[in-house]
Amino acid sequence: QVQLVESGGGLVQAGGSLRLSCAASGRTFSSYAMGWFRQAPGKERESVAAITSSGGSTIYADSVKGRFTISRDNVKNTVYLQMNRLKPEDTAVYSCAASSTAFTARSVAYEYWGQGTQVTVSS
After folding, report:
1. Given this model, what pLDDT does residue 28 score?
2. Measured distance CA(93)–CA(79) in Å, rounded
3. What's the first-to-final CA gap in the chain, in angstroms?
4. Which residues contact 75 (CB under 8 A, 6 or more apart)?
5. What is the mean pLDDT of residues 92-100?
6. Residues 38-48: pLDDT tens digits?
7. Rounded-to-integer distance, Cα 95 and Cα 107, Å
8. Is-contact 2 101, C-beta < 8 A?
9. d(CA 71, CA 77)
10. Are 20 and 81 within 8 A, CB to CB?
11. Is 27 a residue whose pLDDT tops 90?
12. Coil, strand or helix: which one is 45?
């Protein structure tokens, strides 16, 4: 019922910034909690950030707190991840996901996923 299309990934030097976007289709977008996840080669997927359906509350992984900001625009049906002061260890495929059931960092709660976008941070 929800389709997610990501953009904004790329190659950036350490200390730089990127802004990821996730455009959603579907009239029920405003009722979904949204999350960003990342997965590096050979590692498990981990939660980066999540935001409530209204945008009133957010959660972040300790590793990105203070550097990343999740936000959403329910008029544009888009969720964003502003990534500042990037580090090489941030290199991963970043995926956007939607949950109709919970505001959580647990991936099992998300039923819709984007295709993923590569973020590479060089030294």
Report:
1. 83
2. 17
3. 40
4. none
5. 97
6. 999 999 999 99
7. 11
8. no
9. 11
10. yes
11. no
12. coil
Whole-angstrom distance, CA of residue 64 vs CA of residue 115: 22
How far are the Cα atoms of 26, 93, 109, 123 from residue 47, in angstroms, in the given order? 24, 12, 12, 24
Look up residue 62 and give its two tokens: 């300790």
Q: Which residue has the tokens 């409530």?
A: 52
pLDDT at 1: 78
Locus of tokens 């900001």: 69
Q: Residue holding tokens 């625009």? A: 73
Q: What is the dihedral of CA 109, 40, 70, 7, to 10 degrees?
A: -100
Percent of the chain with pLDDT over 90: 95
Distance of CA 16 to the CA centre of its chain: 18
What is residue 53's predicted lDDT score, i.e. its pLDDT?
95
Residue 48 has which token pair?
């980066």
Measuring CA to CA, how many Å separate 23 from each of 26, 56, 84, 122?
A: 10, 19, 21, 27
In three-state secondary structure terms, 31 is: helix
